[in-house]
């Protein structure tokens, strides 16, 4: 078969279509969840943990659909939350700091990369082999020039998320221990990893509870009506399980 003068391999198309088809494992998981039902958090985790397992340690994710207009600067939703049981992820930390006490403290706390002009130069050249960037207020005067390089990747240090600070040791330890950042995207959605499939159900429940409460508290003063329209829980390769937030609304 030809398409516009060139050979068209229909077998490749069939192969692509096959890859996009839901797997048997995914279909089996779909049969185990009621897509029309919203489950209380503990029940949602129980359903998720009974899904057929993938061949790798999947990340468990909470997704929120918020009733805000993210195009409005006064309706930005972002923040950080320490997960009681960590994220299960090895976090690589970079710290922008001039030689001295803050740099030494960051190294002692376990930061993988600590430096100033050398690291700024590498980042400007496109290097981003790290997960979180922290900066001292002094170093931030130069590091803020990396906005175009680090901003699109979500790696820019920010005072609102505790990543611009003199206490570099505390910031590094918190990030390493499982502090996660959340930020609303252009569609009004927030995605937050809460652990791994290998976590005990109780650990996932406690991590999820901490995240839900943190997102709820991040409600902008200008937001009107329902703030969290929906919340779902899922693993990397699983269907989503809808979470009923009634218990959190009653506690508020």
Description:
- The protein has 252 residues and is an alpha+beta fold.
- It folds into two domains: 31-86 and 179-251, Ribulose 1,5 Bisphosphate Carboxylase/Oxygenase (2-Layer Sandwich), CATH 3.30.190.20; 93-177, 3-Layer(aba) Sandwich (Rossmann fold).
- Helices cover 35% and strands 20% of the residues.
- The chain contains ten helices and eleven strands.
- The protein has helices at residues 10-20, 24-31, 41-49, 101-109, 117-124, 137-143, 147-150, 168-177, 201-217, 246-251; strands at residues 2-3, 6-7, 59-66, 78-82, 93-96, 113-115, 132-135, 179-183, 189-196, 228-235, 241-242.
- The strands form four sheets. The protein has a four-stranded antiparallel beta sheet with strand order 9-3-10-11, with helices on one face.
- Helix 3 (41-49) packs across helix 9 and helix 4 (101-109) runs parallel beside helix 8 (168-177).
- The model is unreliable at 1-19 (pLDDT under 50).
Predict the CATH topology of the largest domain: Ribulose 1,5 Bisphosphate Carboxylase/Oxygenase
Order of helices and strands: EEHHHEEEHEHEHHHEEHEEH
Please tell me the overall pLDDT. Answer: 89
Instruction: Indicate the percent of residues in helices.
Output: 25-40%
Strand order of the largest sheet: 9-3-10-11
Count of helix runs: 10
The overall strand count is: 11
Distance between the termini: 62 Å
- CATH top level class name of the largest domain: Alpha Beta
What composes the largest sheet? 4 strands, antiparallel
SS-derived structural category: alpha+beta
Radius of gyration: 21 Å
Question: What is the count of distinct domains?
Answer: 2
Q: Which second-level CATH architecture of the largest domain applies?
A: 2-Layer Sandwich
| Strand percent estimate | 15-25%
Give unreliable regions as ranges.
Answer: 1-19
Question: What is the CATH H-level superfamily of the largest domain?
Answer: Ribosomal protein L1/L10, rRNA-binding domain
Shape: globular
């Amino acid at each position: 078969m030809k398409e516009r003068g060139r050979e068209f391999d229909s077998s490749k198309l069939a192969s692509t279509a096959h890859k996009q088809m839901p797997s048997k494992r995914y279909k089996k998981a779909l049969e185990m969840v009621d897509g029309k039902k919203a489950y209380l958090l503990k029940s949602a985790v129980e359903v998720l943990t009974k899904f057929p397992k993938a061949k790798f340690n999947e990340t468990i994710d909470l997704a929120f659909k918020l009733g805000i207009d993210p195009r409005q600067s006064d309706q930005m939703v972002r923040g950080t939350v320490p997960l009681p049981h960590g994220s299960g992820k090895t976090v690589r930390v970079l710290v922008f700091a001039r030689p001295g006490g803050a740099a030494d403290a960051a190294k002692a706390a376990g930061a993988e990369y600590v430096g100033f002009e050398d690291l700024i130069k590498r980042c400007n050249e496109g290097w981003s082999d790290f997960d979180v960037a922290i900066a001292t207020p002094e170093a931030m005067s130069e590091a803020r020039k990396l906005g175009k390089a680090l901003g699109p990747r979500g790696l820019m240090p920010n005072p609102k998320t505790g990543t611009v600070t003199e206490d570099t040791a505390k910031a590094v330890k918190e990030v390493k221990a499982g502090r996660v950042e959340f930020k609303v995207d252009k569609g009004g959605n927030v995605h937050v990893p809460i652990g791994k499939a290998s976590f005990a159900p109780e650990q996932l429940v406690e991590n999820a509870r901490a995240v839900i409460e943190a997102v709820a508290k991040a409600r902008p003063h200008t937001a009107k009506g329902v703030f969290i329209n929906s919340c779902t829980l899922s693993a990397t390769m699983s269907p989503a399980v809808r979470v009923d937030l009634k218990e959190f609304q009653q506690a508020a």
